[in-house]
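Researcher: We're teaching a course module on how sequence relates to structure. For the next exercise, students receive a sequence and then see the predicted structure as tokens, so they can try to spot secondary structure elements on their own. Here is the exercise chain.
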Amino acid sequence: MEQRISLITLGVADVARAKAFYEQLGWRGQEVEETVFFQAGGLALVLWGRDKLADDAGIEGPGTGAMTLAQNVRSRAEVDEVIATATKAGATVTKPARETFYGGYAGYFADPDGHLWEIAWNPGFTLAEDGTLTVPDFSAMN
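Model: And here is the predicted structure for the students to work with:
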């Protein structure tokens, strides 16, 4: 199995509401058969009805798997900007942005369906111009 993620699918209570939320964040998606696809750098974020996702995954009920999505940004100021934009779109801040133990700056919000997002500036993680994150060689840091 290749070490990469191609799609992240979020089971949502209301596809139209979830799509509107992400569009208010500035994202642009394509809806096909009650499923919304957002290109997110080198992967896709997908919004799909919880019941349909549970049925497709072969589980009973809508499922409640915990997951945190993360977006690294280029500055402390951008962390604050993203969290402010999300709040205006209807997100709930679960942890205000603050300095981190690793020398960065981060905060969390939950979208209207409760999916957690961490928005972080981490000086140790390089971001390419297109937003691709490069995980540093942690063994070289010892």
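Model: If you want an answer key for the exercise: The longest helix spans residues 76-89. Strands lie at 7-12, 29-32, 35-40, 43-49, 68-72, 92-99, 105-110, 116-121, 126-127, 133-134.
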